[in-house]
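Hi D.,

Good news: the full-assembly prediction came through. Inputs first.
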Amino acid sequence: MENLEKIILSLAPDAKIEENTQRFTATIAPEKLRKVAEGLKAKGFDYLMCLTGMDYKDSLGVIYHIAPSNDEANVIVLKTSTPDRETPNLPTVSDLWEIAYFYEREVYDFYGIIFTNHPDMRRLFLREDWKGFPFRKDYDANPALNPIPEKVPSVESFENVPTYSIDKDGKLVKKEYPLFSKDEYVVNFGPQHPSTHGVLHLRISLEGEIIKHIDPHFGYIHRGVEKMCESMTYPQMLYLTERLDYLCGTMNRHALCACIEKAAGIEVPARAQYVRTIIDELTRIASHLIGWACMCNDMGSITAFIYGMRDREKIMDIYEETAGGRLMVNYYVIGGLAADIHPNFQNRVKEFIPYMRKMIKEYHVLFTGNPIAYGRMKNIGILSKEKAVALGVTGPSGRASGWACDVRKIEPYAAYDKVNFEEVLHQEGGTFDRYMIRLEEIEQSLRIIEQLIDNIPDGDFKAKVPAIVKIPAGEYYQRVENARGDFSIYINSTGDKNPYRVKFRSPCLSLITALCPLCDKEKIADLIMISGSMDYVIPCVDR
Amino acid sequence: MLELDKFIEWIHSSLLYLIGLDWVVSLIEYVLIGVAFLSLYAVLALILIYVERKICAFFQCRLGPTRVGPWGLFQSIADMVKILLKEIIRIDKTDQLIFKVAPFIVIIGSFCTFGALQFGRGLHGVDFNVGLFYMLAISSLGVVGILLAGWASNNKYTLIGAMRSGAQLVSYELSAGISLLTMVIISGSLNLTDIIEGQANAWYIFQAPLPALIAFVIYLIAGHAETNRGPFDLPEAESELTAGYHTEYSGIQFGFFYLAEYLNMFIIAAIAATVFLGGWQPFHINADWAASFNGIMDCIPTWAWFFGKVFALIFLSLWVRWTFPRLRIDQLLKLEWKILMPISLVNLLLMAVWVLIF
Amino acid sequence: MIKYIKEIFSDIWNLLLGMKITMINFIRPKVTEQYPENRGKKQPFERFRGELVIPHNENNEHKCTGCGICMINCPNHTINVITNQITTEDGKTKKVLDKYMYDLGSCTFCGLCTQVCPQKAISWTPNFEHAVFTRSKLVKQLNHPGSKMEEKKVAAPAAAPKKEGEGNETNVQQ
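Then the structure:
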C-alpha cells in the first residue's frame, strides 16, 4: 500500500490519496492523467482491469483499475474527472492498454466523454444516431427523443469513423475517415449467424477466404443492465446478473452477493460458502462443456456438440433439484443461499464425478485425438502473453497464453482457500491450448468438488440479513473468476437502498477484442474456430 | 425365384403379344422405364433422408424422428409434402434465368447416372460400352449447377460456397477417377456388365486384395468429398456460410439440391459397390469345397445383394460424416494433392504390376 | 518418407478410434425424453419454479394478508395486489385481499416474492406447461374466487421470524 502511494506521488505530487477505501485509490487532475498512466505502464502496471465511467453530478469522470499482470492483488484505482458537461474530454490511454480501445468507446457511448487521440470514437452499444448519453444522471429518457425509426439506416452509413484531437489552441478538432475502402469485399457476419454465439455482428473484409480486417458491432441485446441496477434495490439487482453471462450465472450472482455482503459487513455461514463453491465449480464444468461442445460444432462436428449438451444436462438436473432453476438458478441470496441443499444433492454430485471423468476420456479420443481437428487447431490464432495482458484476456483463454490470472488463486473467495487445485497453464496461446485448457479445467473443478462435497459443514445456510439491505457510502470492487475470466463488479454507493453506480466488468468483451488481431490473415473457417475457442457470450458483452 | 429379370421379360413378351408392333412396344417400354426410374429416384431419396436422420440421431444418443407414423417412418413423406407446399421466394437482384436453371442442372446430373446403374441381374436402363466413364462424367455435371447457383444468388456467402465447391470437385474428381481406373486395369473393360460379370467368382476387392483395397478406400474418401458431405461439407459449411451455395433457395428449388445431395451419396455408394464389391453378384468363395455355400448365397436375389452392399456403404459414409469435424480448405486440398493423388498414382502402378504377375 | 507413411497410419488409427466412440454411443441407451408420452410419469423436481400459486386449504382459505411486500419487491411489476378496506364486526377497519393478479408473461422466476413473503402465503409449483393462445390469459388471479384469509391463531405472527416482521413494517412504509 505504501509502495503504491510512493509510486503515485512520484508521478503526480498533487494526487489526492483517498483514505478508508477498499483498494488503494488516488484522484488526479485530468492534465496529469497521461503522465501518470505512462509512468504506471512503465512501472509494470500492464493490466487495465476495468475502466468505469462516472457521473458525479457536478463533473464527469473515469475510474481506472490498474494492476501489474504478475501481481494482480496490487490494484491501483485512479480517478479523474472533468467539470465540462458540454464537450467533456480526457486524453485516451488506448495506446498504452489496448483493451481501453473498447472501454473508452463504451464510456463515450454512455457518458459522452470524448477521449482525444482515440482512433475510433464511435458509439459501442447504442446506435450512432442515438440522442443523449443515457448513463448521465440528467439524461432525458423521453421516448419521443429517440423514437423507433421507421427505416433503419444501413450499417454502411455509420462507417465514417470520427476521431478527436486537441489542436494548438486547445480546441477540440474532429476528423473522420472511412472504415473500409470502396473496393473491399465486406461480408456481414451476423447478427443472425449460426456461430457467432449470440447476436454479435462482425463486418469482415475478405480477400478470397483470407480475413483482412474485422470490425465488431455490439449492442444488439443491450438492455442497459447497469442503468437498470441504479433504480433497483440490492436484492432486486441479483436476478439481472444471471442474465449477463447466462452460462455462468451462478458465478456472476456470487460476485454481486459477495460484493454486497462484504460492503454491508454480513458474515456468510461456512455452509453457504462451501455450497457456493461447489455450485460455482459445477457451473464452470457446465460452461466449459458448452464451450467445448460449441467449438466442436463450429468445426463441423455436431455429434460432439450433442455429447457435450447431454452431459451438461446432468448438472442442470442437480441445479433443478436443489435450486429450482436450470439456466437461471437463482440460488444465492445476500447472506447465503435461498434454500438448504436438497437431501439428494451430495449423492447426485458424487455420481456425476466419475461419470464426467469417463466422458472426458471419450471426448479426448473423439475430438482431441482426431487428426483433422488437431490439424485445424495447431498453430492457428496464437495469442502471446503480452498481447493477452494488453487486451485483458483473462480466464482460460488468458491462461492458455501462460498468464496466471486465476482470481481463485489471487484473491480467494468463498471456500477456495480451503481446497487444493492446480491453476492449469499452457504456454503457447494457440487455439489448441485454449481448447485443451477447458477440458483440463473440468478435471480440476471435479477435484475441487470432490474435496468439498463430503465436508459441507453443518449450520445455517443463510445469515441474518436486514429486510432492507443498505450498504455504507463508498466504493466496492469484487472480483470473481467465472468460466470466461475475471468478472468484477464495481459498486458506488451513497448509503441509499439503491446503488449510485454499478459496473460489471465483462470478461467476454476483451475476448472479442482479441478476436480481431488473432484472425488477421487467417481464413473464415479459422475465425469461427477461434471465436469458438474464445468461448464468449454476447449478453455479457452487451449488458 | 425373386429375380426381377424374368418379370421384365414377361412384360416385354406380353406387350409384344398384345400389340405386335416392335416400335410401339419399345416406345411404351421407354416410358415405363422412365417412370420406374423417376419413382425409384423419389423413393430412394425418401428412404435415404429417413435413414440419415435416424442413424445420425442414434450416433448422437437421440431417437430421431418418432412422431409421424410408427418410429417416424412417414417423416420424410411429411417433409416432402411440406417442401412441395412451400413458397418459392423470388429474390431481387439475382440472375433470374441461371438462378432457376441451376437446381435442374444439379438434379439432372444425378438422375442421369441412374440410367447406367445395374440394380440386379438384367435390371438396368442402358448397357454402355463406356458405362463407367459415362457415370463419372455425368455425375460431375452437378458441380456446374452448384457453381451457377452460388454465382446467380448474388450473395457473398453463396459465392464463397460455390468457389469452395469448385475447388473441391475438380481436385477430388482426379483421385476418384484414378482409383476407378485402377480397377479398370483388372477388369479390362469400361462396360459395367463386363465389370460385374468379371466378379462372378470373386469380387475385385478379393481378386487383388492390396491395390484394390487401397483404391477402394481412396474412392470412398474422394467420392465422399464429391458429394459435399461429411467432413467435406465445406461448400455448405453451415457454421461458417449459413448454408453455402443454396442459402437463397427455398421451396422445391431447395428440395432439388437436397434430393441431389442424397442421391449422389447413393450413386457414389452404388459405383463403389459395382466396381469393388461385385455389384449385384452374390458373395462367392472360389473353391471346390464351398459349392454349397455359394448355392446358398445364390438364393438371395441379386437386387437384394446390390442394395445391401449400397446401404452398407451408405452407413459407413454416415458413420464418417457424424464423427469427424469439417476440414479447412487448405487441409482439404492438402489431403487430395499430397496424400490421395500420389498414393493413387503409385497404386495404379502397383495394380498394373499385380495384374502382370498374377 | 517413413515419417510420412507413419503419420498417415497413425492418423487413420486415430480416426478409427473416434469412430469407435461414436459406435459405442450408437448402441448406448438414448437420452431423448418422449415428452407428451411421458407426461405424468416424469415430473420436474419439486423445487422447480414453474408458476406462482397461493396454496389454499380445504376450506378455500389462503394465508395472504394483502400486505403487498411481494408487489414492492418484484423487480418487473409482475404482481399486482388489489385490496379492499372492510370493517370487521368489532368496528376495526381491516385490509383484506381482493385480487392477487400475477402476470406469468412478465415473470422472471427470480423467486424474490416467495423469499420476502412474511406469511409464506405464496409458493411455487413445478407446473411448466404454460402455453396459452392469448397473452391476456397469462395474467392470472391467484386467489380462488370466494376464498378468504385463513384465521390465524394469535400466536402465529409472534412465532414468525423477527427479521421478517421488521421487514413487513419497513417495506410497507416505503
